[in-house]
Amino acid sequence: MRTLLKWIVYDSAESNFASGFINIFVAILAISALISSDWILIDDQTNSTLIEPLSEFPGAQKCERLGTRDFWSISSFGGFVEKNGKKHTAFRTEDRVLWDCVTPLVADLFYLLIALCFVVALTALCAALLHVLAPPHSFLAWLRRNTVVEMCNMLLCLTACAVSIVAEATIANLRPEASVSVGSGLFLLTLSGLQSFLSAVVSLRHTSKIQKARRIDNQRLLCARSLRSWRDMGRRSEDTRPIVDFERYLDSASAASVEELSVMPKMEETI
User: Fold this and answer.
1) Does this entry carry the keyword Membrane (predicted)?
2) Which has fewest Cβ within 10 Å: 145, 179, 213, 267?
């Protein structure tokens, strides 16, 4: 029980509400990216996904945008080969079918994006709790003061951006006749990474201010103690007599040793 209380003790002097609110905003951005359907935008003027015979399939829709939200439900893959040998790939969900838009590789990339967005949101909430509660436990304090969680979030956001660009390039290869570009989901996660960087900067400034204030307080305490000790010494001069006598003894002993050294050459001359 004591160990648990040690981990959840609140320290108001170390609390950093600014970084806490920024990390909450980071979590909101990551969740918004997680539920977005606009990670990849596809502008196809030929409308090739609704021409015969592809439009005969129930639920067939034009593939205009893709996002992490499209991969929440149960899905499956299928295919179709035309008489001229042209192959088509079908991505089936509960309510629609997308042609020549999603492959197993693209699906795996979006599943990875879902995992990254979830981890970013979770770690951002943990960072917010660390900055607001500021537990004094050594490991948690090390995480907070060195902005380890924020740096991890920045790396995760950078990885998610790279995965999104790879998915965009893969879809562009599938649809060479269409214009494929990244959407708002990527920008939301990029903004989340920038906010994590801002939180790290604010946290480091807050830590440096606290250390500077404590250093000044320690200097004041040391000065006050030294002045008090000198004042007490002036009031009780008898306490300094043993020290003065000891210093006189050391001076006399050093003078006697010098005289002995100066006398030794004269004794050798007389011999």
Assistant:
1) yes
2) 267
